[in-house]
Write a structure and sequence with these properties.
single chain, alpha/beta, TIM Barrel, eight-stranded parallel beta sheet, 8 helices, 34% helix, globular, disordered N terminus, binds D-xylitol-5-phosphate, binds zinc ion
Length: 226
């Protein structure tokens, strides 16, 4: 495993947060020890659900959220939304390669805007999309559920895909984070880390519990034994 234990990052998905008081809930989860805010953008087109857009990202910044915001675009087309999220204060912007007609251009657009860029792979999306763009990537996100909804069950086949991607990243020597998204809990986070992930998105497992710190502490304790 190439990752330092100290480099594991926990990214609560605010899809499962309380939208009626989102700023407070995001502050609360960060105070509980989260590292990154995972921000799911769904358009009722690329995925059959509709969530939040750049105005909400900007509102979180205005509310005083300074932690990295990890914008996961589940939209098509992607380029206009990339521009909007750069202006709204995103830190990372990731998109699904099959949702963009010009993957290299979309990645470059993110980089030119001063954000960190990444691609997202659904459980059945082939890895060949990485072939010519690895050097433009700061983050590689593997979906461990099909995108569109929180609260789904972790798809086990993701572990093999993680091992494959970990090898690709290590062989490249590039500082690319390997994130996993969907069905991550304190019970399975250890084996996910052992398969090579270093960044863990978790929505319902954290926001579904009354004590966010307790869950995040359990996750960190599990990660400390990797
Ligand atoms: C699904 C989203 C995920 C989702 C994860 O399309 O990308 O980020 O919120 O939620 P849980 O952790 O509940 O599976
Ligand atoms: Zn997500």
């Amino acid at each position: 495993m190439a990752n330092l234990k100290t480099d594991f990052q926990i990214a609560p998905s605010i899809l499962a947060a309380n939208f009626a008081c989102l700023g407070e809930d995001v502050s609360k989860v960060l105070d509980a020890g989260a590292d990154i805010v995972h921000f799911d953008v769904m358009d009722n087109h690329y995925v059959p659900n509709l969530t939040i857009g750049p105005m909400v990202c900007k509102a979180l910044r205005n509310h005083g959220i300074t932690a990295p915001i990890d914008v996961h675009l589940m939209v098509t087309p992607v380029d206009h939304m990339i521009t909007e999220f750069i202006d709204a204060g995103a830190t990372y912007i990731t998109f699904h390669p099959e949702a963009s007609d010009h993957i290299d251009r979309s990645l470059q657009l993110i980089k030119d805007g001063g954000c960190k860029a990444g691609l997202v792979f659904n459980p059945a999306t082939p890895l060949h999309y990485l072939d010519h763009v690895l050097d433009k990537m700061d983050m590689l996100l593997l979906m461990s559920v099909n995108p569109g909804f929180g609260g789904q069950k972790f798809i086990k086949g993701t572990l093999d895909k993680l091992r494959q991607v970990r090898q690709i990243i290590d062989e490249s020597g590039l500082p690319i984070r390997l994130e996993v998204d969907g069905g991550v809990t304190s019970d399975n986070i250890k084996e996910i880390a052992q398969a090579g992930a270093d960044t863990f998105v978790s929505g319902s497992a954290i926001f579904g519990k009354p004590n966010y710190k307790k869950v995040i502490d359990e996750m960190r304790a599990a990660l400390a034994t990797v």
